[in-house]
Amino acid sequence: MSTVLLAVVAVILCILFRILNVNSQPYKPVIYGRDRNFIENILFIAPFLNEPYTPTRLWGFSGHVQTILHSLIGRVRCPWPIGGRISLVLPDKSTLTYDLYEPVGSEREDDVTVAICPGIGNTSESVYIRTYVHYSQCHGYRCAVLNHIGALASVPVTGARIFSYGHTDDFGYMVDNLIERYPNTKLILVGFSLGGNLISKYLGEDRKRPLNIVGGISICQGYNAIDTMVHLLQWQNFRRFYLYIMTDNYRNIITRHKRILLSQEMKTRYSLDENMIVSAGTLPDLDEAYSRRVYGFESVTDLYKWSSSAFYLDNIKTPMVFINARDDPIVPEQLLPVAREFVSSHDKAMYLELAHGGHLGFYEGGLVYANPVTWLDRALVGLVGGLLMAHDKCAPKDAPLLDAIPDEDEPDLIKSATIIYRDPLDKTQKV
């Protein structure tokens, strides 16, 4: 009996070790891009981006555990930053809110505002947003966090819609309002997951944008909603499980505000069937029953194409940084070539691809108990500083040539980095 018990324990331990991926090791982020000067400015401010990312030893090498802990717990010892809530009534009668946080601690010479767009159904009250806001405040940055319409239970829906995957106007209204309040501020746009898609689409759309925008940072977005759904509908790597959770959360937001969103007037105007909405098992089903009708699309595919930043990236002229993890169970590695190709064919663009981190997790340090500040929090503050430096050094009169001999006392910051420069016209190169 003891032999059988030992065998069972051994099998369980093997399964756990396989799930937790404890045999893995820390790796440096792989940096993609063709603009050497831009990348060097980033690494000058944040040299740790060229160092191995070390997840929490026992469980941090598992993308699933990182993703699940991020969803359930968020961050360790999360602060609650003090700020104020701004409310705007939009032309379509929707009530849009965003939270504004002034910098604390160290003073900066210039006025910088980080405009943050959270992930799907998230708000300024989400734990990972609060941690990043507090860390950013302490480094002298003002932060503004968009609250997706419908996501806050305390803010009623007053218009005929909630947020969607590709509706960038809400973020645009927040940015415009920030410029009215702080006309001389420098704006850095930061988007998490769905928010990364929205800020990228916003920067690539044919629309008027403030000249104050210095750069954008996208974290863990999927780039193409059509391809993303193809992968999420598969059971491989438990993706269908994550899709179920996202569907349930989105449906709960709709039903929470059903008095407005599913009123008889709305049902008649958009041909909505409440039973189809409530019984939808996947996001494509829910989008067929609700989203594509409210936004006036003939099909879900048309909605997804309109929503996807991949179809707008080529029009982006603003400096951009993209971050993804290869073990992200929601955004599989097959979706990442979009970012690689973009930075390989555009200047002032950089893509960081990490081996580990999951979906918005990026916990680091410790054996079991992770550090309060994640690698992602540190990276974002460093990237904001790097984008500001690159902006300030744009076309300086006394800039040395790139192939000039460097000072012996100054290290070549990208000589030791794992950087891949690719010729976008050379299809024979492989990653």
UniProtKB/TrEMBL annotation:
One of its GO terms (cellular component) is sperm plasma membrane. It comes from the Eukaryota. It is a single-pass type II membrane protein. The active site is at S193, D328, H359. It is found in: Membrane. InterPro entries: AB_hydrolase_1, AB_hydrolase_4_CS, AB_hydrolase_4_sf, AB_hydrolase_fold, ABHD4. It comes from Papilio xuthus (Asian swallowtail butterfly). The gene is LOC106127721. Its main location: membrane. One of its GO terms (molecular function) is monoacylglycerol lipase activity. This is Abhydrolase domain-containing protein 2. One of its GO terms (biological process) is acylglycerol catabolic process. Residues 1-24 form the signal peptide. Belongs to the AB hydrolase superfamily. AB hydrolase 4 family. Keywords: Hydrolase, Membrane, Serine esterase, Signal, Signal-anchor, Transmembrane, Transmembrane helix. Residues 114-365 form the AB hydrolase-1 domain. The lineage of its organism: Eukaryota, Metazoa, Ecdysozoa, Arthropoda, Hexapoda. The keyword Hydrolase applies.
